[in-house]
Amino acid sequence: MSKTSIPVLKPNKFRKMKTSRKIMFILLLFCLVLLAVLFFRSPISKISEIQFQGNVFATKEQLLQAGEFNVGDQFFGVSAATLEARLLDVKSVQNVTVDKQFPGVIQIQVQEHTTVAYELGQEGSLMAILSNGVMVPVKTSGIAIEKPILTQWNPTDPYKLELSQVLGAIPNQLTSDISEIMPSPTVSFPDRIKLYTRSKFEVITAVSLLKDKVEYLNQVIETEEPGLITMLEADSYVPFLSGDSVPENGDGTTNNE
């Protein structure tokens, strides 16, 4: 009888290699998890500095509260877009840009609504009226002396908000001579207003017409003597008689009705 030879079985190298890869993957994953834990517990993963620029009326504390973040929080815990959306909820803020610089620094550029006028608050404190109609307390360093004072306005008057928006849309050089604005409604013009200028003119116009009429106002102020300027359906100018100049208040405004 012939003998049948039995082939020698080769070692299962593939199975050993597959097991080794699994072990290496588990070790690598463990190292990554360990590094992540150590990183998020280390100071380098936290906010170390927050820089605000451009804010005049909104305080740093108000912005931090609105943004719901602070020094010591996780740097990657919130995105720049989320912070920008939160900070836009602050009434004085018009636009905001957040720049996150690793490690730990957040720079925030704030653009606030422009100041268009001032008004005395109920407690006698000076309030700034912004272009969106919001009233905010005035800091001494934040006063723009070329802005008008609003007087005799009802806080709920809808034309007050409209006036704020109109003033915000007019270049500053065209309104810098206006010292006081008060409501003076009529049946025909419920948004009629009366203005007084630092150059001693008295002006009658309407909130809805002011933006289109303001250039005429400046032309008269630059070329004529003090007088009464009417800017409604038609424009007119009547100079004050030499003995009929309206009396001035201490701030250069007048009391003539």
UniProtKB/TrEMBL annotation:
Keywords carried by this UniProt record: Cell cycle, Cell division, Cell membrane, Membrane, Transmembrane, Transmembrane helix
Organism listed in the record: Paenibacillus macquariensis
General function of this protein: Cell division protein that may be involved in stabilizing or promoting the assembly of the division complex.
Record PROSITE patterns: POTRA (PS51779)
One GO term of the biological process aspect: cell division
Keyword Iron tagged: no
Domain POTRA: 45-113
PANTHER family registered for this protein in UniProt: CELL DIVISION PROTEIN DIVIB (PTHR37820), CELL DIVISION PROTEIN FTSQ (PTHR37820:SF1)
Alphabetical list of Pfam families matching this protein: POTRA_1
Compartments in which it is found: Cell membrane; Membrane
Family listed: Belongs to the FtsQ/DivIB family. DivIB subfamily.
Chief location category: membrane
Name the record gives this protein: Cell division protein DivIB
Membrane-topology descriptor: Single-pass type II membrane protein
HAMAP family found in the cross-reference section: DivIB
